[in-house]
C-alpha cells in the first residue's frame, strides 16, 4: 500500500496539491501497482511523476 493511501490523503505526486474533488487521475504504478494520483494540471502539462513506493518515473 502506498504512503498516501495509508495516510488517507490524495495528493498529486507531481506537485503535491490535494486532489480530492478535482478532475484528477488515479492509476496503478506500471512497475509495482501502487496507487498514484495526479491533478488535471500536471496531467495536461505532462509533468514527470515518481512512485513513492518503488521510484518508477513517468511523464
UniProtKB/TrEMBL annotation:
InterPro entries: HVO_2753-like, HVO_2753-like_euryarch, HVO_2753-like_ZBP. It comes from the Archaea. Residues 12-55 form the Small zinc finger protein HVO-2753-like zinc-binding pocket domain. Pfam families: HVO_2753_ZBP. This is Zn-ribbon RNA-binding protein.
Amino acid at each position: 500500500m502506498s504512503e498516501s493511501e495509508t495516510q488517507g490523503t490524495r495528493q498529486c505526486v507531481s506537485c503535491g496539491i490535494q486532489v480530492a474533488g478535482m478532475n484528477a487521475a488515479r492509476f496503478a504504478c506500471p512497475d509495482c501497482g501502487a496507487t498514484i494520483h495526479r491533478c488535471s494540471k500536471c496531467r495536461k502539462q505532462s509533468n514527470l511523476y515518481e512512485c513513492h513506493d518503488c521510484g518508477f518515473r513517468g511523464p
